[in-house]
Known about the structure:
Blueprint: H1 9-13, H2 21-46, E1 60-72, E2 75-87, E3 93-95, H3 109-120, H4 125-131, H5 133-136, H6 142-150, H7 153-160, E4 169-183, E5 186-199, E6 204-211, H8 217-229, E7 237-240, H9 244-254, E8 260-262, H10 264-273, H11 280-291, H12 296-313, H13 315-324, H14 339-342, H15 346-358, H16 370-380
Parallel strand pairs: 4-7, 7-8
Antiparallel strand pairs: 1-2, 2-3, 4-5, 5-6
Amino acid sequence: MTKTTATSELSLLAHEEGYDPIEDRLRQNIRSTIEAVFEEELEQILGRCRYGRADAVRKGYRHGHRERQIIGTFGSEKVSIPRARIEHEDGQVTEWRSKALPRYQRLTKKAEALIASVYLSGTNTRRVKRALYGLFKGPVSKDVVSRAWRKVKTDWEAWCARSLADEDIVRLILDGTVVKTRLDRKATNISVLAAIGVRRDGQKVLLSIGNMGGESTAAWRQFLDDLDARGLKRPEFVIVDGAPGLEAALSALWGDALPIQRCTVHKHRNLLAHAPSHMHDELTEDYRDMVYADTAAQVQERRKAFLRKWRLKCRAVADSLEEAGDKLFTFTRLPQSQWKSARTTNAIERLNEEFRRRIKTQTALPSPETVPMLFWALIASGQIHMRKVDGWETLDQPLSNEVLDLDA
């Protein structure tokens, strides 16, 4: 009679250990394999194998072993690492240190990358230990998770200092977002500024992101000066959220002739804020008919009709639209295939949405420095993929000199 023993789902979720011949056999060989790596590394330094005799002048000698715990994607293992003293040409004798496993390091690079990836996927430091309990054969403390995450900082700092001189950016998208973080032991909202560039082949790329303390003209000017100092060339077209400080900083850096498009989504929100709630549906319909018209002539005609109607129904709405001027319709100077991607700052809004989804499990991030680094890591780790913009095939075509007639 054959007896079949099934493993219940509850036992798997409770991390109960059962006999797995494949896993058990592999783990038996892990320790000997790791120890062999250290033995081979030391043999190359000494120029002879264990118990071997050197034909030339000896470079050092062994003196026992020490045990170290290593945590990798294979789990947690205690291994015996050889000890040796190395004799240098100047007569100095130093203790041998393995390059495969530096001093005080317990996590392998793969394990550190795995922990950072789980953290980025949308969980906090305490929950990571439960998620990886079965793999590491024990809990991973929140301090281990924090240390693994902080090692990403080296790559982050290199990315922030990289040159942008070779980036062929034709379009620049600028926007800011507000994130809650701990500042002076209190949960505080801070502004994070972001810049996404569009290369000539249509591919979007994150150029810079940083906490500048706000969205004032001075904050944006400092942010843009950093891009300029790293070699970013003047773009052909810029999309902004409509913040007055940003537009003033752009004009100061690249001149008033720079084509600037104000985000139509941000302006729609501004118009709704000026109108009573019972008018929102009607206002939205009129606004979309204007912004999403098929031709520049239709956009111009419907803008005039919008202003005539809303000057009578709600003067504040008409005044808000007029305040944007022709910068709300700069996209009409581009080939029509680009209009969809050139009207809004949605490329950055998409990044903001993914970031908020990621931090839902945390009331507030631990420090202001963590916020931009986490933004960047979501893209660097592949959690967010940036595709090409719509109409990228016509990015080489110059902007038209024709602007809308704003006389209503």
